[in-house]
Structure formats: structure tokens, C-alpha cells
């Protein structure tokens, strides 16, 4: 049960002080707030309100938005002015990736760079620099908030007291399901494998000839999520990568590049940037397999055989998932599909239509679907069978069924209260004056 102010603060931190030179000239500036040695001008407030309305059209009818935006601006400036923030925790590569994506979205609204620059009354380089600083400020504040509240916990007594005081206002939990899967990608043809192997061999030769890894990733890598970041995958927790990729990465020294590594996606060259006990910072170059000529019939047959063995009691679904599933995360959990809930329960309404339809055919716990082809929004198609672990009807949130969710609500409520108390303490150290808006 997050407070409204949390959402508003998050929205405002996403905004940028963008406005055209023409529009800025039309605003009669006045000071609407003073925070220590800094001020908030009417033009800055108007820009933030405008950006909020652009990003969230439903906010246009809310007459309290200017006041909420101003309060969030004041809080941001107070934190940045008074809190001791260590900026070394910011991942510059990830930051540049976010800035790049935001700039793409912004540029897509205009027919040309010139039109965008004319509208904002500043060059694209200045726009990018201001955007980068704003996002960095946002990350710094969020990092500090997490650090400040890291040790906050709630007791069973606190959770139950909150429940008793707020039971009539707690949400109705929609119908939900817990589901496991065994996922298989069709085998690729020999021609596809040999073609990809030849291409990655050529990239490896360029790398050995002295070419820059990041430049080669941008030029050749077929991983759309990382190619334009020089192949950078950021920090990845141990166990989240495909086993062959992870094994190769952990075997490297910092800065070292692997030999050619094969996964179900294709062939990779991997460079280790940093290694910790339970995480890796790596970048890679991927030459993907062409799956247009894959063995779908063989994959369906294998899944049907697995299903038959489970239903006959020859093995459990969890055992088969651990042995055969191509999804490393759910395979380690016996096929269980992760959700934010500790019981891994999904609301039916949140599932994609195809999966919702498949799950709808399963009537009781233990039922297993026939193999189905799944076409995800991104990535390659695959085949899978699904097991219904549990079906939970719609009900009012209660501690017996939903204690983990109740605890999460109470914890977030407590964190927000402590965060606001901390902000009030910071405000006492800074002179804050504001005008009516």
C-alpha cells in the first residue's frame, strides 16, 4: 500500500527541465521556493509539470499536481544539498545506456534533430548532458534511500497490528495460479550451426588482431539488448546465466576474453570485466543461430514423452524440469515460474493471453498441458508444457493466505514513513521557503 507521494516523487524524478526557448521567454519567472542557497523558478516548476502531463496524461485533471511536483523538487534539492552521497556506486555504462534509450524516445517525437533542438531551444548535446545529470541524480537519491532503509524490518506483531487497523481497506486479491514449466528450444540445423561458427571465428580473428571488443560488439553482435552498449550485460547474479556461458565467464581473469562458447542462443565471445563471489560483470559478442529451419517435430515429441513419464509416475515434473528444461532459472526450481510472491502466484489477469488460455484448460493441481508453441514478444519461439501447481480463488487479503504480501505492504509503509521522517530532519538543516503555486 504505497503512498501517493511515493509515486509522485518517482514520476518527478523521471522528468527533465526541457522547454523551448520561445516558451521559456513567455514565462514570467518568479521564485516559487528557496532551498538553502538554491531556488526553484516558476519556469522550472512549469517545465516539470508539463513533462509530467506529457508522460502521464491521466494527471492532467489533477489540480494538486503542481503542489506535489514542487514538494518533490524541494525534497530532491534538499537531499542533494545535505546528504552525503557517494557517486562511485553509479554504473556509468548502465547510466549511458539509460540516457541513450531516453534520447531515442525523445527524438522519436520529432521529424529531425533540428526540430527537436528548435523546440527545446538548445543543442542535442546540451539536452543529453542535462538528461544524464537528472538521471544520475535520480540514481544517487534512490541508492541513498536504499542504503538508509536497508536494515528496516517488520515483526509479526507489527504486521498483524497493521492488518487489524486497516483490514477494511486492504485490497481484494484476484484469482491466482502457481505454475511450473518445462521449456525447450528446437534444435538448430547443421547448416545454421556451421554458418554461425564461421562468423564468430571471423570476429575472433579480428579481436586477436587487436580490434576493440566493444567496437566489435556494436558492429557484429546479434544480441539486441547489449550490442549498442558494446556487449555490456552489466552485473549478473550467479545462477542467472546459461550454465555453459556462466562456467566460461567464471573461468576468466578480469579483462580476459574466452574462447568460442556455445549456448542455445548461438556462439559467444565473452570478456570478464569484474568478478565477485556471487556476481559477474561481463560483456559478450553473440552470433545467433538461424532457427528458421529447426526440428520442431522432434521437440514436440520429446515434450510429449516427458509429460507421459510424469503422468505415469516414472519421474516428477521437478526432476524432468531440472534435467531437460532450457530455462536455467526455472529449471533450478523444479520448473517453478518465479513471481514477486513468495509462493510464486500469478494473477490470471496479468498473464499473457496465450499462457492464460493454456492455464485455463488445467482444472486441478497436478494437471499438465499438452506441448504448446510460445511466441514471446522478444526472443525466439519455443515449445513448453505447463503444470498447474495451485489455483487460488479471489479473496480479501488475509494473513493466513497472504502473509508474505501483507508483510511486504507493511514493510513498504514503514520504509516510506521513516523516509519522510528523515526528509523532515534534513529540511530542518536547510532553510526552505515556498510560495503558493
UniProtKB/TrEMBL annotation:
Domain (PpiC): residue spans on this chain: 174-274, 277-375
Sorted UniProt keywords: Isomerase, Periplasm, Rotamase, Signal
InterPro entries recorded: PPIase_dom_sf, PPIase_PpiC, PPIase_PpiC_CS, PrsA_foldase, SurA_N, Trigger_fact/SurA_dom_sf
Oxidoreductase in keyword set: no
A Gene Ontology molecular function term of the record: peptidyl-prolyl cis-trans isomerase activity
KW Transferase (keyword) present: no
Source domain of life: Bacteria
Cleavable signal peptide: 1-25
PANTHER family reported in the protein's UniProt record: PEPTIDYL-PROLYL CIS-TRANS ISOMERASE HP_0175-RELATED, PEPTIDYLPROLYL ISOMERASE
Full protein name: Peptidylprolyl isomerase
Species per Swiss-Prot/TrEMBL record: Chlorobium limicola
